[in-house]
């Protein structure tokens, strides 16, 4: 298990002249605790993972389209990650887990596709399979459950805020524009009506969290946090939400498109 904030300050966030020890001390307890693939028992991918030098420009919020279980334990969280990976590899025929981050209903944050944590640390991007035609510039967070008519548990939402703040700091993203739902890119109900309605509050809460974390950075590194300009083709297109969508466990809308060369 690693601390998200430590990863953030260890790579893209800081330059060579920064006092890494001081910054790690200031932020060590600020980010989410992220469980690695080794800890939850991941399988090896079928083949190599594609890693891009530049980081993502959007954070895509999903729901897993699975049961809203009442087991909030770590064991359940690890079982969820294994089940998602098995489905993505054995049923969908993908290389590995599609998303980069998974959050259980109990608030456990776990690494998804192989190399995702080290990519955040280095300011790079592991290309996943979670939002059709936009996988090369988005990082996906799968939130356990189905949220068409039910709100996520507080533990999950708290972990989601922490995770989004960590990613925004690591990749220099503006939470107001960077945090989106799957339905903002593809025609799908994901991440569910109730979770989607919470996205404005998620952006506000993440912005406040980022501001608090930035105050812990040295002044020279605070100045480096301006977000890069996003290419027009990477912006959400807000397609219509389908009136009827296929209902199946683990299915939450289009994950791969014609522009996606990798699974």
UniProtKB/TrEMBL annotation:
A Pfam family hit: Amidase_2
Gene3D superfamilies attached to this UniProt entry: Peptidoglycan recognition protein-like (3.40.80.10)
Chain ranges of the N-acetylmuramoyl-L-alanine amidase domain: 44-192
Superkingdom of the source species: Bacteria
SMART domains registered for this protein in UniProt: Ami_2, PGRP
Region named Disordered: 216-263
Span of domain Peptidoglycan recognition protein family: 32-186
BP GO terms, sorted: peptidoglycan catabolic process
Family under the similarity heading: Belongs to the N-acetylmuramoyl-L-alanine amidase 2 family.
Name by which UniProt lists this protein: N-acetyl-anhydromuramyl-L-alanine amidase AmpD
């Amino acid at each position: 298990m690693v601390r998200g904030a430590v990863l953030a300050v260890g790579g893209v966030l800081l330059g060579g002249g920064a006092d890494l020890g001081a910054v790690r001390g200031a932020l060590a307890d600020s980010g989410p605790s992220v469980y690695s693939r080794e800890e939850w028992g991941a399988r090896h991918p079928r083949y190599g993972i594609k890693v891009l030098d530049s980081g993502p420009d959007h954070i895509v919020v999903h729901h897993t389209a699975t049961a809203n279980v009442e087991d909030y334990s770590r064991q359940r969280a690890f079982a969820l990650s294994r089940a998602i990976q098995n489905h993505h590899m054995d049923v969908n025929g993908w290389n590995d887990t599609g998303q980069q981050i998974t959050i259980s209903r109990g608030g456990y944050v776990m690494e998804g596709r192989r190399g995702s944590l080290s990519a955040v640390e280095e300011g790079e991007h592991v290309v996943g399979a979670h939002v059709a035609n936009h996988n090369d510039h988005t990082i996906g967070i799968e939130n356990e459950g189905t949220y068409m008519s039910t709100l996520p548990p507080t533990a999950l939402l708290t972990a989601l805020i922490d995770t989004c703040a960590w990613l925004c700091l690591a990749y220099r993203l503006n939470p107001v524009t960077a945090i989106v739902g799957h339905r903002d890119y593809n025609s799908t109900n994901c991440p569910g009506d109730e979770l989607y309605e919470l996205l404005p509050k998620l952006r506000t809460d993440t912005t406040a969290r980022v501001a608090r974390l930035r105050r812990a950075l040295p002044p020279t590194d605070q100045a480096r946090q301006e977000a890069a300009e996003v290419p027009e083709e990477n912006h959400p297109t807000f397609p219509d939400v389908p009136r009827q969508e296929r209902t199946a466990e683990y299915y939450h809308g289009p994950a791969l498109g014609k522009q996606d060369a990798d699974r």
